[in-house]
Specification:
442 residues; three-stranded antiparallel beta sheet; two-stranded antiparallel ribbon; 15 helices; 5 strands; 46% helix; signal; Oligosaccharide reducing-end xylanase
Length: 442
C-alpha cells in the first residue's frame, strides 16, 4: 500500500471509529471488555480494524504471529512425505517447476480448485508472492477451461501433473481463486497478461453470470442469485458453504459491469446462511435447495447418513462464511443469533471432544459414519472458533482456546483440515483482510 493511501486509510479509520463509537457501546448485549470482539457495526473493510478474538481470549500478538508462521512453514514448506501417497508428510504445497506449484489433496492424491483458491488467498494474506504466482500459474495453465461455454471457469480437479480428471466445475474454488486475484491486485498491483490480477479476476467473475451468452451454463442461478452446485450438470441446487457474501461485495467492485448481480448475490448469500442452519442446533447441511432446505436425493431419508443433507465437511465452512462477512462488513443480529445457537449446541457436546459429523437435529452420525481422523476434526475446530467473532454466548472464548490447543494438521487428513486450520488462524487473529482495490465497498 503506498504511503498516501495508507494515510488516507488511517484518517478514514479514525473517522469511522469515532462515528461508530456510540453504537458500538450500545450494541445489544455486546460483551464488555476487549474491543477486538466482532461487535463492530461497521466492519474491518471500512475501518481497517478487524476483530481479533485471539487477543480477546488473552493470546499475545507475538504468540499468534509465531503460530501463523509455523503453520505456513509446515503446510507450505514442511516435509513433503514419501511418494507416491505423501500420507506421512507435512506439506501440501508442491513446486512442480520454478513457476508452477499445486496444493495436493493428500487423501485423494489430486489437485482441487478449492485448495488452490484457499492456498492463493492464504499466500496473498501473508504476503508470499512467489508461492501465489506459482499456484496461479498452475490454476491458469492446467485447470482453467480455455474454450466453449464454460470458458474461464476451472475444471474442479486434475492429477498432480495438471492433467484434467473432470471438466465439471466447483463454484467454491472459482470464487476463492477470483477473490484471491482481486486481493493480489490490491496488495501487489497488476502486472501484464497472466499477472494482470484484476483483469484476470474480472474475466472469471464476468463468466459466472454470462456463460450462457456463449452457450454455456451460468454459475449463479438466475432466480435465487445463489451459486449452483456444479455447472454445467448439477445446477438445480446449491451448497450453503458456497455462499460467500463477504466476497460478493469485493466482486461488485472487481467486476463493475455486474455490480447489480453481485449486490443481489450478497443479499441472497446472507439469506442462505441464515436459512440453511437448523434453528435449534445451528448445523447446516452440506447441500441445500435454493430456499435453504436440505437437498435430498430420491430414496434418501432425514435420518440416513447421506453426505448431502447432513452436517459434514462441506457444511463446516458455513460457520466461517457468516463470521467473515461480519468481520469485514459489520455484525448483524442474525450472525450473533446463529453463532450463539451453534456454540450452545457444541458446548453441550463438549467443546474439546465433540465429533465431526451430525444429523441437523444434533444426533451424531451412527458408528462407522463418524470415522473422520482425528475424530475431533481440526478443520471443524477452526471453523467453530470463528463463531467467537459474532457470538455473545458466555463460553465463546472456549472455542478460540480449542483451536489454539489444536496441533497443526499433518499426515493423511492434512489437506482439508490444514487449509481450514490456517484460514481459522487468519480469521481469528484479524489478519484475513479485504485487500481488494477500493476496499471500502459500500
Amino acid at each position: 500500500m503506498n504511503r498516501a493511501r495508507k494515510l488516507a486509510v488511517a484518517l478514514l479509520s479514525a473517522a469511522a471509529l469515532v462515528a461508530a463509537a456510540p453504537s458500538t457501546a450500545l450494541a445489544a448485549g455486546a460483551p464488555a471488555g476487549h474491543p477486538g470482539l466482532g461487535h463492530n457495526p461497521v466492519g474491518g473493510a471500512a475501518t481497517g480494524h478487524y476483530p481479533d478474538v485471539f487477543a480477546a481470549a488473552g493470546y499475545s500478538k507475538k504468540a499468534v504471529d509465531a503460530r501463523l508462521q509455523e503453520t505456513w512453514q509446515q503446510l507450505f514448506h514442511g516435509d513433503p512425505g514419501t511418494a507416491p501417497t505423501h500420507a506421512d508428510g507435512q506439506s501440501i504445497y508442491y513446486q512442480l517447476s520454478p513457476d508452477l506449484a499445486y496444493v495436493e489433496d493428500i487423501g485423494n492424491q489430486d489437485v482441487r480448485t478449492e485448495g488452490m483458491g484457499y492456498a492463493m488467498m492464504i499466500a496473498v494474506q501473508l504476503g508470499h508472492k512467489q508461492e501465489f504466482d506459482s499456484l496461479w500459474n498452475f490454476a491458469k495453465t492446467k485447470m482453467q477451461i480455455q474454450s466453449g461455454g464454460e470458458k474461464y471457469y476451472f475444471a474442479w480437479h486434475t492429477d498432480t501433473t495438471g492433467k484434467v480428471l473432470s471438466t465439471g466445475v466447483a463454484p467454491d474454488g472459482d470464487q476463492w481463486i477470483a477473490a484471491a486475484l482481486a486481493s493480489a491486485s490490491g496488495r501487489w498491483g497488476d502486472g501484464s497478461g497472466t499477472y494482470d490480477y484484476g483483469q484476470q479476476a474480472e474475466q472469471i467473475l464476468h463468466a459466472m453470470w454470462h456463460a450462457s451468452d456463449n452457450g454455456g451454463v451460468n454459475m449463479f442461478d438466475a432466480a435465487s442469485h445463489l451459486p449452483t452446485f456444479s455447472p454445467p450438470g448439477a445446477v438445480s441446487y446449491s451448497d450453503p458453504s458456497y455462499a460467500l457474501p463477504a466476497f460478493y461485495k469485493v466482486f461488485a467492485t472487481a467486476d463493475p459491469s455486474d455490480k447489480a448481480q453481485w449486490e443481489q448475490a450478497y443479499t441472497a448469500g446472507e439469506k442462505m446462511l441464515q436459512e440453511a442452519p437448523n434453528a435449534q442446533t445451528g448445523l447446516a447441511p452440506c447441500y441445500a435447495n435454493f430456499d435453504g432446505t436440505p437437498y435430498m436425493r430420491a430414496g434418501e431419508t432425514v435420518d440416513d447418513n447421506a453426505y448431502d443433507h447432513n452436517f459434514q465437511e462441506d457444511a463446516w465452512r458455513v460457520i466461517a462464511n457468516a463470521n467473515v462477512d461480519a468481520a469485514w462488513f459489520g455484525t448483524k443480529p442474525w450472525q450473533t443469533k446463529y453463532s450463539d445457537t451453534l456454540e450452545n449446541f457444541f458446548q453441550g457436546q463438549g467443546v474439546s471432544t465433540y465429533v465431526s459429523r451430525y444429523h441437523l437435529d444434533g444426533t451424531p452420525l451412527t458408528a462407522g459414519q463418524n470415522t473422520y481422523e482425528p475424530a475431533h476434526a481440526q478443520g471443524l475446530v477452526a471453523m467453530n472458533s470463528t463463531s467467537a467473532i459474532t457470538a455473545n454466548a458466555h463460553g465463546r472464548k472456549d472455542f478460540v482456546r480449542d483451536l489454539w490447543n489444536t496441533p497443526i494438521p499433518s499426515g493423511q487428513a492434512r489437506y482439508y483440515d490444514g487449509m481450514l486450520y490456517m484460514l481459522g488462524l487468519l480469521y481469528d487473529s484479524g489478519q484475513f483482510k479485504d485487500w481488494a482495490p477500493q476496499a471500502h465497498h459500500h
